[in-house]
Amino acid sequence: MSAETLASREVPKKENRFKVWRQTRPFWAGLFTMLGGVPIAYLPYGDLRLGNVTLTMATTAGAGALIIGVLLITLGLTMWFQPLVRVFAGIAAIVLALVSIPVSNFGGLVVGFLLALIGGALSASWAPAPEKEETEDEPVEAEYDGEPAHADETGTVMTAGVPDQRDGATETSIDAKGGRNSAG
């Protein structure tokens, strides 16, 4: 964004700042991508205790899973704070999600894989809303008051900028039933 663009925008109310910030970037894509990176990075190192039983998901590819998880979290933050690279970040998140299947316990028990895949797809497909351009030369529509506005040089009566067609049919005019009128 340029300085002129930032200066021309009006500052939103205090309670609407987060809403405006969220709508100007792929917010949900970044959130899903970051949430997908957490189980992918955590499961190879974490352990779950159920009473006296400890469930450990340690794998030999723990470092790869940690790298993939950290990269997915970084890509999610990139989607939030650098929305111009959203397509690259989205495609990279999809590729990392696919790589996490063999590397990190089926992509963080499929949960991390699905969240990262959805986040990457949302980021790659997100497009910013078009900015409203304020122009001074917008045409103003005239209101029709039932009276002819004026006649042009040829004498054709113009009503609100459109020729008045109430007088006689021509060879090419169409009647109300959809057929052609015969002139004469």
Would you spell out the secondary-structure blueprint of this structure?
Layout: H1 3-8, H2 17-23, H3 27-42, E1 47-50, E2 53-56, H4 62-81, H5 86-103, H6 105-109, H7 111-125, E3 150-151, E4 157-159, E5 162-163
Antiparallel strand pairs: 1-2, 3-4, 4-5
Helix pairs in contact: 3-4, 3-5, 3-7, 4-5, 5-7
Pfam families: DUF6114
Region (Disordered): 128-184
Biased composition (Acidic residues): 133-146
If you average the pLDDT, what whole number results? 77
Count every beta strand, where a strand is a DSSP E run of 2 or more residues.
Answer: 5
Oligomer status: single chain
| Largest β sheet strand count, sense and barrel closure | 3 strands, antiparallel
N to C succession of SSEs? HHHEEHHHHEEE
H/I helix tally? 7
The chain-level structural class is mainly alpha
- Numbering strands along the chain, what is their spatial order in the largest sheet? 3-4-5
First-residue to last-residue Cα separation: 66 Å
**Any idea what the shape is?**
elongated
